[in-house]
Amino acid sequence: MSTAIPVSIQPAGSIRMEQAVRKFHTSLNVSNLRQSIAFYRELLGVEPAKVYDDYAKFELDEPPVVLSLVPHAPTHGGNLNHAGIRVRTSDELVQVQERLEKAGFRTRREEGVECCYALQTKFWVTDPDNVLWEIYVFHEDVEAHGHGSETHEATLRPDHALATAQVVWEHRITTPIPDRIPHDDNTVHEVRLEGTINLKAAKGHLQPLLNDALRVLRPGGVVRVHGLAGDRELTDALPPMPGPAAAVEHVPASATVVRKVEAAGFAEVRVETLSQRAYFTIADVPMRELAVVAKKPGFRPKTATHQAVYLGPLASVTDDFSNVFRRGEFTSVNVHDWQALADGPSANQFLLLKPETR
């Protein structure tokens, strides 16, 4: 964790009261953080709101500006690291993102990430001249700098925005199950377990591995579990199997795999594939191809600002956030749960209403 530079700091409460104000945000690369703090203290006439040895931030009410300073050598693109806007609410964040995407501008969203000593939900977008913009809502202060995005202001110039590769970790049936996934917390975009459930060791190690996958995944990150599953667990010894199936040592029940994904803390769990045809039948247990996909949940606002009406055909359904939708009833949900419904495969089974359309 970074250490603080001795300096007079504004009371933390003064920052929180300003969250009702929409503010322009700009981040600058600076060659000497102490000298830059001294300069902007005099220029702006206020003390910095946050100061660490790898980050500083000034907050102004008039004009409404958030200025952050990052110790990083200026590049050919100049001193601007990125520009941004801090919006007031999660609903407002969604509105801005939808407006840009409908106009054809690609965005990248991040749910509940730790960045710049704060918990934020945000999206990134570049303008036609490749200037990187960060649109975000502030949730609360935290004590760690956080990983932020691969578009993080301290490491990425605007001309690289949205261009860096996604971080993917994959385990295959041909390799031993590791004790620990070799990545830091909240840094991986996708974890793929290809045939892992069919290793004998997976019988005792699948749950710890899924728990570790939740640790390394970023909020909103995806886990994919793919392999051979039985209609019930196969307890008999497996006879030699042909082709690629020769590597199969263990066949769990498909329901067991789904329950373990849920138990790890994943949300929006979906059985993407469960083949109608059984590829093998051993000891009267049909074995089918199984693919389960789920997401690491992000920050969820407590305020239910949006509404969803389940249209059927079932009497009621329950999502992974314990929202119960009864057929034909208006159900209030927070904006992130609403967005999960809108982006999910069951969107056509709901009437989804924003606050301004109620």
Amount of helix: 10-25%
**CATH architecture grouping of the largest domain:** Roll
Assign the CATH class of the largest domain. Answer: Alpha Beta
Rg estimate, integer Å:
24 Å
CATH T-level fold name of the largest domain: 2,3-Dihydroxybiphenyl 1,2-Dioxygenase, domain 1
- By CATH, the superfamily of the largest domain comes out as 2,3-Dihydroxybiphenyl 1,2-Dioxygenase, domain 1
Strand percent estimate: 25-35%
Number of helices: 6
Count the domains: 3
- Spans of at least 5 consecutive residues whose pLDDT stays below 50 are 1-19, 114-118, 141-164
Q: From N to C, what is the helix and strand string?
A: HEHEEEEHEEEEEHEHEEEEEEEHE
Q: Strand pairing plus helix content: what structural class?
A: alpha+beta
Widest sheet: strand ordering: 2-3-4-1-5-8-7-6
- Shape verdict: globular
The termini sit apart by 46 Å
Mean model confidence by pLDDT = 79
Number of strands: 19
Biggest sheet record: 8 strands, mixed
Secondary structure blueprint with pairings:
Elements: H1 12-16, E1 23-30, H2 33-44, E2 50-52, E3 55-60, E4 65-71, E5 80-86, H3 90-102, E6 108-115, E7 118-126, E8 132-141, E9 168-172, E10 188-194, H4 202-216, E11 217-230, H5 254-263, E12 267-274, E13 280-282, E14 285-295, E15 306-310, E16 316-318, E17 324-326, E18 330-333, H6 335-343, E19 350-353
Parallel strand pairs: 1-4, 5-8, 9-10, 10-11
Antiparallel strand pairs: 1-5, 2-3, 3-4, 6-7, 7-8, 11-14, 12-14, 13-14, 15-18, 15-19, 16-17
Short synopsis of the structure:
The chain is 18% helix and 35% strand.
Could you explain the architecture of this structure?
With 358 residues, the protein is α+β, with helices and mostly antiparallel strands. The chain folds into 3 domains: 12-160, 2,3-Dihydroxybiphenyl 1,2-Dioxygenase, domain 1 (Roll), CATH 3.10.180; 168-295, Vaccinia Virus protein VP39 (Rossmann fold), CATH 3.40.50.150; 306-357. It is 18% helix and 35% strand. The chain has 6 helices and 19 strands. It has helices at 12-16, 33-44, 90-102, 202-216, 254-263, 335-343; strands at 23-30, 50-52, 55-60, 65-71, 80-86, 108-115, 118-126, 132-141, 168-172, 188-194, 217-230, 267-274, 280-282, 285-295, 306-310, 316-318, 324-326, 330-333, 350-353. The chain has an 8-stranded mixed sheet with strand order 2-3-4-1-5-8-7-6, with helices on one face. Strands 9, 10, 11, 12, 13 and 14 form a 6-stranded mixed sheet that branches. A 3-stranded antiparallel sheet has the order 18-15-19. The longest helix is centred in the middle third of the chain and has 15 residues, at 202-216.
